[in-house]
């Protein structure tokens, strides 16, 4: 499961970076591009950090960062859609993946928190 999630988060980051190429060259779109690239790649990088966490509290802290970054990625995707900078059909799969990953990471944090008491 760990390797599968490493792969999924990396693919998510790659796909978010690729989707930014479809956004127009405007001030707002350029801001969204940079934010989406930053937070989506952070999901993948920080998930890898959870895999090498040296303690339960460290794991919980790191997975919490992953949750924040995947949620922020979702925000920027939705924002681009709300501003009519991209068509929904272009980002539907990314929105679905971010929701699925959020659910997985939330469940993982909950399990780790319960087992840490």
UniProtKB/TrEMBL annotation:
<dbReference type="Pfam" id="PF05635">
    <property type="entry name" value="23S_rRNA_IVP"/>
</dbReference>
<protein>
    <submittedName>
        <fullName>Four helix bundle protein</fullName>
    </submittedName>
</protein>
<dbReference type="InterPro" id="IPR036583">
    <property type="entry name" value="23S_rRNA_IVS_sf"/>
</dbReference>
<dbReference type="InterPro" id="IPR012657">
    <property type="entry name" value="23S_rRNA-intervening_sequence"/>
</dbReference>
